[in-house]
Amino acid sequence: MNAHSKDCASVRERSSLRGGGVRRAPVIIIGAGHAGLAMSRCLTERSIDHVVLERGEVANSWRHERWDSLRLLTPNWLTRLPGWRYRGSDPDGFMSASEVTGVIDRYATLVGAPVQIGTTVERVEPAEGGYLIRTDRGPWHARCVVLASGAFQLPNVPAASSAVPEPVQQFTAKDYRNPGQLPDGGVLVVGASATGLQLAEEIHRSGRPVTLSVGEHVRMPRTYRGLDIQYWLKSTGLLDESWRTVDDIVRARRVPSPQLVGTPEGKSLDLNALSDQGIALVGRLAGISSGRVHFSGGLKNHCTMADLKQNRLLGSIDEYAESTGLTPAIGAKARFEPTRVPDSPRLQIALGGGEVRSIVWATGLRPDYSWLRVPVFDPRGRLKHEGGVIAAPGLYTLGLNFMRRRKSSFIHGAADDARDLSGHLATYLAGSRMPLAEAV
Amino acid sequence: MNMQTETSTQTDNGVNVDALLGAREALTEAPAAAQFRWKATSKWMNGTHTRSACRGFFGLGEDQSHKTEFTFDTDHPEVFASEDNGATPVEMVLVGLAGCLTAGIATVAQNRDIQLNSVTASIEGSMDLAGILGIDGDVRNGFDDVQVNFEVDADAPREDIEALVAQSQKRSAVYDIITNPTNVSVNVK
Description:
Strand order of the largest sheet of chain B: 1-2-3
Structural class of chain B: alpha+beta
Radius of gyration of chain B: 20 Å
Number of domains of chain A: 2
Radius of gyration of chain A: 23 Å
Distance between the termini of chain A: 32 Å
Number of strands of chain A: 23
Oligomer: heterodimer
Order of helices and strands of chain B: HHEEEHEEHH
């Protein structure tokens, strides 16, 4: 953290010069993760003065809130930020959480981000000429606020979890670290995204028999025709597909992460691989009553839909390969075995019976905006924004699923999004003639 | 674009997709209007024979009505020593599933510009009578398995037809009712 002491000192110096209770900056960025720092870099390029407030340390979530074995779903060559790209010796590898922490930490230094660490934002509210940002280290006033505090802060645990009987321990993707945390015995993993599949596999390998509850999911091979799937997603333009043109953006933003894992051997991870290892598949968790967990009888259709979608994706990749003349240089076309679904997947498990000792909720994460006291939420509590431009002047967000592009929630997605939004923000600041009150 | 427009005006499965998409948009803005209550009444005739009827329902914020009252006789077959005045109630469930999935296929096909020529289905629900007869407490009363087999003749490749059938399940009320638990309260006045 010494790397940032100079910046922090300048922040303190400025605040003491201003005196009084409320410090001022044209722009406050909340969160010093990859997205907040990308925005910081873009604002610096535009000579827009700003401060980055960080509740913990730089890359805090990557340091403290990831499971031990987690690696990025994107290869190193694709992991980039404004003014930085991977130059290491393993472009096809996948970074671990601690490697990502290192990258973000060094990036903060590289771009000279004015980060004030150890500062928790407690409330953001409208104020004359902008916003008042209350923190545990005093208030700030800013004309613009960029919410870069992370899209994956609160676990989406279904309400049914409150009906889980006491002896069964519950974990989420947020507090799970490794199988050793879990009690011995059976484990129910709920959710079939990248997270659910990765956790199911490593927990099952630890000798705890896993049942995996599978709802809507996205099946994707790690490599296709000899190249990483992310190469294809990028070159066919899918990663850059715009929120303006995609069919049904509301739905697109809810799509779970594709069933991928980043391993040195570049293996694929799908439900068939898990079935081969002895993991039992059941349908979507439908509810819990009288100590029994119920699963939907619709498992087969969820798997059929994912198989059909995967084949459509591979079909569009084949077309692209054909049209660009890549075909002779790469592997042959292939279609993968359809997902094998048991004839009669179990529809319920008695939780008191000792078969399931713990439940891991891999049911997604959402941002935490509990501190945002600005009326910018829809009736279901979701942030109202147009491609990251929030429905209140001068407010922006970053890092959300499909925020401006399909890749928005990935590290490399923040680069383009931060560039776009910093342009919008600069225009807003330049055009904004609102008088700034002397005192807030 | 012209090609597409032309195709979409030619595809006619008899479903007014524009109206449905309009309703989707309107009900997104007015969630209260999306609250529906479906209703049926029934009257015991004799033996295992019951006559049920559907006419009114509630939705879009007010009472609604079918054009006419529809009646349905349910009974048990002669092998159960009944008079067989109608389909069994469990067959009515299969009828509901067939109707719901097929309506979904027609709607999704219209929306995806796929002309249907014919859609037929055979549906089977298997059941161990040891449940309802109380012979074995471990056997459930209801179906232990339901198989739906569609034959769809449409101007589209097989994968697109499979996707139609999959999407119709995803958006089917009866499919959801059968595959997921529902709270049911049965009261006596």
